[in-house]
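## Example pair
The file below holds two records. Each record gives the amino-acid sequence first, followed by its C-alpha cell line.
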Amino acid sequence: MRIILFTGKGGVGKTTTASATALRLADRGLKTLLLSTDIAHSLADALAVELSDEPVEVAPSLWAVQIDTQGRFEAAWRDVQAFLVDMLARGGVDAITADELTVLPGVDEVLALLAVRELALTGNWDALVVDCAPTAETLRLLALPEALTWYLERVFPVHRRIAKSMRPIAALLGRGEALPPDTLFEALLRLNDELASVRQLLGDPAVTSVRLVLTPESVVAAEARRTFTALALYGYCVDLVIANRVFPAGDDDWRRGWAEAQQRQLVGIRESFAGLPVRELAYRAAEPVGAAALREVADALYGALPGDDPAPRSPVSELLRVEQVGEAFVLHMALPLAQRAAVDAVRAGDDLVVTVGPNRRVLTLPSVLRRCTVSGAEFDGRELRVRFQPDPALWPAPLRPANRPRPKPGRRTASGEGRSGG
C-alpha cells in the first residue's frame, strides 16, 4: 500500500500534479484511487469526468472519488448533533438555527481524514493519491489526530467523570437531560481511536509521503519552506518538491524577465531543499484537462519511459529519536529550514511543547525522560537537541543509566514516542 499526499499554496497546481501522478501509477498497473480533502473539489474538472461519493473508474486501473462530507457528518455525528440541537432548543433557539449552529468547525477536515483511513483499510487499492487542501488547511488536517488525541486523553476523562457524578443530582432537579449522554462520550472515544489509526497510517514513512507543489516565486517558495519545516515538526515525510509553471526562456523582454527571475528562485529552492529531488514542470501552452493532457504532464514530471517509478519508497529518516550519552539522554528532532528565533521548547509536566513559528506540537515524553529534568537545549539550524538529566529523586543510584547495561540501539520515530498533540 502506498499513500501520496500533494500539498502547497492555493493555485500552484496540486490537483493537476496529483491527477497526473495517479494516472501514471494506474498506467503502471497499480490499482489506484484518487481523492481530495479540499472542500472546493476540482478533481472532476481536471479529469473532465463526473464524480460522486463512491469510487468511479475513470481510466484503466484508476478510480476517483469526491468525498461527500455533509453526508458523512450526518451519518457519523448524529448522536453528537442531536444532543447539541436539543441543548440549544431548550435555550430558545429555533430548530433550523440550532441545526446550522451544530455544524462543528473543522468537521470537514476530520471527515476527510477518516475517509482516507477508511478507503486505505479496505485493501482494495495499491495506491492512494490525495489532492490536499491549500497549505494552511493541510497542516491543520495533519496536526489534528495528535491534537484531538491529546485532548481526549488529558481533558476528556475529567469532563466525563464530572458528568457522571452530576447525573444523579441533575435527575433530582429534573435537569438530567442537560447532561451529555453516554452515547456522546462513546462517539468521541470512537473518534479518538479512528484518528489515532489515521496518525499511525499517515505518519509511517514506509507507507505515506508528502509532495510539495510550488511555483518558482518568492512568496510561494517562502510558504513551501515553512510548510516543509512544519511537516517535519509533526513527523511527516516529504519525498519530492515539484516546481510547476516554469517559464521557458524567450526573446522578448517580458518572457526573459520572468524566466530569469524564476531561475534565481529555482537556485534558492534547490539549495533550501538540499537532499530532496526538485522536479520542474514547464508552463504549458494550454490548461492540462483530461487524461491525455495529464499523461503529458506525467511524462514531463516522471519521464516518458514507463520504468520511471512515480512512487518509490522513501528512505526512512529519523525525524525524532532519543539517544543515551553517559548518564544523560538527548532528544533529537529534525526541523529543516527553521529559523533559530522561531524555535522554542518548554517542558510542561510529562510533555515537551515544541513551537516553530505559528506551529506547535505537544510531545508526550517516553517514561525514561519523564524521570529526568531538562538540563539544556540547542538548535543548530537543522536539528533541535534537548538534553535530559536523570532526576536523583526518581532514579535511585543502583538504577541510574550509567549503572545499568546499555540497551541495544533501536529506532524511535515520532509515532513511537507516545501520543502527542498540539
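Second record, same layout:
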Amino acid sequence: MGEPPATLDEIRTWPALVPLAQAARALNIGRTTAFTRAARGEFPVPVVRSVGGQRVRTADLIAYLAADGGASS
C-alpha cells in the first residue's frame, strides 16, 4: 500500500459516499482485498453498488472505526 491509512479526523471530512478503494485505505486494507471481500459480502461495512462502481457511506466507516476504537481491519 502506498498511502498511510486515513485518520478518523480526515475521514470525517470526506463526502457522504466514497469509492471502495478509498474506504479500503480508511480500514488499512489493500485494494484487491477490499474488492474481494466486497464481492464475497465480507466487507466490514455495507457496500453500495451503483452505476459508477462500488461505494461506501462515510458515516458507516466512521461508526465502524469509532466502535473499534479506531483500529484498522
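Notes on the second record: The chain has one domain: 9-67. The beta strands are 17-19, 47-50, 53-57.
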